[in-house]
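Notes from hallway chat w/ T.B., transcribed later so I don't forget. T.B. wanted the structure written out for a chain they're using in a teaching module, and asked if we could keep both sequence and structure tokens in one place. Agreed to drop them here.
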Amino acid sequence: MWDEARGKLPSRPGRHLGWFALNSTHRSHKKPLRLAVPCSCRLSPSALRESSLLNIRLVSCTKRNLDHPCPARDLYTASALFRKARAYCEHHYDAWYILSAKHGLVHPDQVVAPYDITLKRMSIVERCAWERRLSERLRRLGSGHIFYAHAGKDYIVHLSSICLVNILEGHSLGNRLRWYNQQAAREGWECP
């Protein structure tokens, strides 16, 4: 996957059948950047540039929940990583959703009660059912959108059916936190 933080593309993306590249301007960059997108999008680079697709951000939930029902955007704020990821996506993207191990795709304003379920503790059958529900919810958002994931590999592995850019692939937790802080300092927005 393309890595915005390091600016790396897959080695020879033009020769890899699973990728095509296009020029795109992302709001956090003053210059156009080269972006590699999985071919499962089934759109040509020119069609993707000319379309009115949304850039949708997917944030994974965290184990740490508040102890009362509240909007999903607030439920996971006990986690510093979630707070920073939330601030980043609210500043940069057209729309964002939370990948919940219990509920699948959750709108940030949806009221959710605390829970203690993780993908790691699910059986293979449960994970497959979760993936099917998630895929259906993503399809209902419309076709062809580009999804930017700020999620761990346990979630990313289940998102193979969509156009996905994994922003922080390969970064440790500490490096992810540092990256959000650096983006906030460079761009002038508050990073909690």
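Follow-up for T.B.: Confidence is low (pLDDT under 50) at residues 1-50. Might be a good example for the class.
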